[in-house]
Amino acid sequence: MTTPFSSLEDFVALPRLSGLVLNREGTRLVTSVATLNPKKTAYQTALWEVDPAGGQPARRLTRSSEGESGAAFLPSGDLLFTSARPDPDDADGEKRPALWRLPASGGESSLLLTREGGVGGVATAEAADVVVVTGTVLAGSANEEDDAERRKARKEAGVAAVLHSGYPVRYWDADLGPEEPRYFGLQDLGEDGDRSLADLIPSARGGLRDAHPVLSPDGSALFTSLTVPEERGSERTVLVRVDVATKESVVLLDDRGNDYAPGPVSPDGRYLAVIRDRRTRADLPPRTSLLLLPLEGGEPSELAGEWDRWPSPAAWLPDGSALVVTADDDGSAPVFVIDVSTGAVRRVTEDAAAYTDVRVSPDGRSAYALRSSYLFPPEVVRIDLASGSTERLPNPAERPELPGSLERVESAGEDGQPVRSWLVLPDGASAGAPVPALLWIHGGPIGSWNAWTWRWSPWIMAARGYAVLLPDPALSTGYGQHMVDRGWGQWGGAPYTDLMAATDGLVARDDIDGTRVAAMGGSFGGYMANWVAGHTDRFAAIVTHASLWALDQFGPTTDAAYYWEREMTPDMMSENSPHHHVANISTPMLVIHGDKDYRVPIGEGLRLWYELLSASKLPADDEGRTPHRFLYFPDENHWILKPQHARIWYGVVEAFLASHVLGEERDLPSELGL
Ligand SMILES: CC(=O)N[C@@H](C)C(=O)N[C@@H](C)C(=O)N[C@@H](C)C(=O)O
Asked: What ipTM score was computed for the predicted complex, to two decimals?
């Protein structure tokens, strides 16, 4: 059997689909496909068309070394997208993301809009030629010309400094300021049209950093979340409507107990679906709910409030009778339909898969979506909304061959709570040939192992003979509010004991060799790997990626300090901080961290490394030797994004595990230069 998971080169070269848009008539689907560039040092994306009827093979629509993304259809069927490909009329110009149009009638793409601050994304109205693009401006700019001049002056002077008066100053891997994101209404799309841009929320400051514009079907109104500062470095997210013609903006929902974000507008323009996220406190866990906001006036009402899941609204049925949503549910994320008059919830898709980017056909009978699971990466499917049956459409890529099988397993937590996991088993695992195993701990911690991920592929390890357990412990989504509540603010409690219960179930299996088991986790999963290291010696090795180590230090230095301050009091942080238990650590640890990680800053990795060498039970000896290792990426962030670095990541992890779990030595990737 040939599986791409045996070779890291083949694995990083697998095509990766993301995003899906449907034209107004429901006759064209477009998705984005990322593939390796010729040097194999970056991914480049191209747009592909998929036939909704399933009759035609997928075909590539765009081709440039700079790639294309952000596809959006105009009502005419023309396709808009963003790309930093060269402007044919300005071959020497600087490459920056611009807005392009591919005509429905065929032919070449043409450049629609270029601006000094680039074009980040595009939103179109369903039934009107209204386009809103996102892009940045320098905070002090008066207009586009002024912005261009200020950028030029800053660049020519070689100045990167930013003067802040507010919070935050960084976000994930981006330094914030003096650029601020804005929404621009594009006035005239005709061939020779005036491309003047209307800054729709000029007072937004940094508040659109994490926002997406949603347009009403007739294009008259734009809805967005807007993050507004609060006292003491905190912030909240309010819901805003902007009149696209007059630029008049109105705050629709704003209170200190919740954050709000817009979902889709009903086909008749009368209701807005709204996502409400409860603001947390140390004694109040998160809760996500769905609201219907009447746009002609009146109070919002909660939809399906009795349903013990956290819905994410995707689309309305064309007759406005129901909302199509997805929600995490027992290790998957199916499609559901919620009747808006009764709140009744009906599960549509029955398979154990995760659905995203759901688009509904104009007749309301079908939906199209990206679907993935641990058995296959994202692929385009058609869903029959009445029966729930799904059909995989002819896709830009085939499913990769897997080197093993997948099972759903369950253990009981200390309080009797079922703890559910996916278990990846390598080919050949049996009672007669038990295999070594890995416990993988997910991040968040509010999340679930329920969809394919390119970052942590269990099949890479299965191809090397390991079973991989993917448990959803306390704080995971898809198991009801109680599952979140029982872990809130006490990470070293139920989340840890649930993971140990799942591990007990794993090692009790006769196809698993319980003497050869390691634990691994990233981000919050790395926090937990560190906690595991200080509380048990049952694992042969531990891999901790982008991990939280000293919570008193992490809290104020992460990019969103207020978020963490709302979960734990200083006493709770101290009680749950792994660094207090360094003296108990007797397991070899592989620490991995990227220097540009602003979510879990590098200080966590540096301090963990030093304290492992100086204070664990396996300190560096008098010649500096230690079983611990530190894999440091100076130019990566919270994730390892460059394909060559992903290969190194898997290669070093594999060698470390082979040494400590299997007792075998492996060559390290030669590019490490060791
Ligand atoms: C504001 C905030 O911190 N949100 C959390 C979702 C978060 O970023 N948590 C990280 C520590 C984390 O665990 N991230 C996960 C999603 C990951 O796998 O990287």
From this structure: 0.93
